[in-house]
Design a protein that fits this description.
229 residues; mainly alpha; 8 helices; 70% helix; globular
Length: 229
């Protein structure tokens, strides 16, 4: 399989993400471009992840599953109203897939409790602020989603902490950053939807979202690393 250099994929992801953002309804309002480039950006991140992680096959399998589920969520959210609940479910399953990936290779869930305490408190504050604006029919799915999201971000931080002093330290830091950015992206989305509109919300939500996915993909061992991070 021919593997493109990472800088070429990075350039393609940046260009596709930029076109997806500027073509959104709140920007230039070019639906055909938005429908094309929003899924394409995630597909390009899948292309980055695909040749990676062969030294960690279980983690690779679940990261790819999470990316594919995220792609389904991206497509569902092209219809913001009717697609919101299917998109929410798709991303909930994506977070569970990532959580599964981050507990492979002998690393147990919450091996370090502190990140779970911190992210749990952050999630509780976000829910407390947004809860009055969440419709009754969405409260249970939103609660389940936030629990899965916070757990995924916390476990990413656990992996980052456990990687200190090892050859995979850099990738561990990138993964921890990805979890934090995913939490930030979804917090912005929730505030914009359930509390009050944010200026340029789509820009910040999508920029942090795709950066988070990039970080998760880059956590997998490089194709030519021979198992070294």
């Amino acid at each position: 399989m021919v593997t493109l250099p990472i800088h070429r994929i990075a350039l393609a992801v940046f260009a596709s993400a930029l076109l997806a953002i500027v073509s959104a309804p709140w920007a230039l309002g070019l639906p055909a471009l938005n429908f094309a480039f929003k899924p394409l950006t995630t597909l390009l991140i899948i292309a980055l992840a695909w040749p990676r992680g062969h030294g960690q096959p279980a983690a690779r399998r679940w990261v790819l599953a999470g990316l594919l589920l995220s792609l389904c969520g991206d497509i569902a959210l092209l219809w913001p109203q009717s697609g919101f609940l299917p998109g929410l479910v798709s991303f909930l399953l994506a977070h569970l897939a990532y959580l599964r990936a981050f507990t492979r290779d002998g690393v147990r869930l919450a091996a370090r409790p502190l990140p779970f305490v911190v992210y749990g408190l952050i999630a509780a504050v976000i829910l407390w602020q947004l809860w009055p604006g969440v419709p009754g029919a969405l409260r249970v799915p939103v609660l389940a989603y936030v629990v899965c999201l916070a757990s995924m971000a916390a476990q990413a931080a656990v992996r980052g902490g456990l990687a200190r002093g090892t050859p995979g330290q850099g990738r561990g830091r990138v993964l921890a950053l990805g979890g934090a950015l995913f939490m930030s992206s979804d917090a912005l989305l929730a505030i914009d939807r359930f509390a009050h509109p944010l200026p340029l919300s789509g820009l910040w939500i999508l920029a942090t979202y795709w950066t988070a996915q990039w970080c998760i993909a880059c956590w997998l061992e490089p194709a030519a690393s021979g198992g070294r991070g």
